[in-house]
Predict the 3D structure of the following.
Amino acid sequence: MSSSLARASAAAVVLALIAAFASAMGGEQALVALLALSTAVLALISLVLGIATVAVMRSTAAAATAIHSGDFAARSAVRPGRDPAGLGDAFNAMAKSVQESVEAASHAHIRLMAALNSSIDAIVAVDGDGRITFANDAARHLLSPQNQELVGSPFAWFVPDDRLVNALRASSEERRSLSVFIERLNKQYLQAVTTPILSGGDWASLAVFHDLSEVKRVEQVRRDFIANVSHELRTPLAALKSVIETLEGGAKDDPASAAEFLSRADSEVDRLVQMVEELLELSRLESGDIPLARRPLDFALILRNAVDRLSRQAQRAGVELTLEVADGLPPVSGDADMIERVVINLLHNAVKFTPAGGSVRVRATGDDGAIRVSVHDTGVGILPEDLPRIFERFYKADRSRGGGGTGLGLAVVRHAVEAHGGSISAESTPGEGSTFTFTVPAGAS
């Protein structure tokens, strides 16, 4: 092709020159000669351009071959001295730019996916047909605990909530964000925020799920706390008011009746005082305002003192109370009074809710660098739905509704144990008894 173009251009030059000389020899007009000469010059320019075009095409082909083969030094594919207008350098720069753009896009994609998968919020993208086109790790854990494939499946399969499906469609069509609150099984509360994607390819809208279950749980605890405080205060106050009204009605004139009612009033006042003291203690424990009087503890002595203090109550209830302390307990430092109060509270509950003929066993062992104390009773037990909440303030399981108390004892126990760096747990089977176990790390300071 290149040789044909060169030959055609050369022929045009020759023919133009012959025409010019013929015109001059024949005595034709100067205008004809000038036209012939112009034709010759144009033909010569065409020849030069033809040669340059051939060179450019050859250089282009060589550079393209070099790029296709992975050799970005396109200049090496062009013979020395045959690189018109720096074509090799241009292709080198272009290839380098393309490679850098591809690498940058790849790194950006990796960073974006890492960020999306690191989010604690579930993120799902759907297309115009309502099918999932993307789901991060949190979405897979939230929406598909059985590890079903999310991408490519209809969104409504995993969140069968018409409000959310309609919100996704409205976000895409109306180009606005919407918020939907969803309640799922097992008291799981979600806030889903849907957002349109204006230029997302097959992504029409995005749904971001915020898990509000813990927030709802805390709100419920707060409401229960207020309700329980009101109830616990109202009961003794109502009893005191009743006693005062009875005394004013004439009972004060009967020494025996007056003494009985005053005794009741004294008991209710004691109950109020105990509640206030426990509330204050619990508040200080939660805020960390109580300085622990840390010193080396004789755990065996603490346990014996607690058992001795509850032994009379156990005898009156017909409950056997025993203590087992393993040899070689690891050394522990802490607040002896606070630890003894923990054990007394646990023993008091165990004896209170164990019928006559039952038993309460206290056992202390050294376990993995900590002292483990368990209080096991053969009492009425705790219902499964109550067990997770027994350490909450004022929470009373059904077994204790009629048993008095403030409902603060176990909350105080938990915070006192945690103040020593330990933990407490409870296991129970209704009708068979309960076991409360707490640990204190060895060498706690």
About this structure: The radius of gyration is 45 Å.
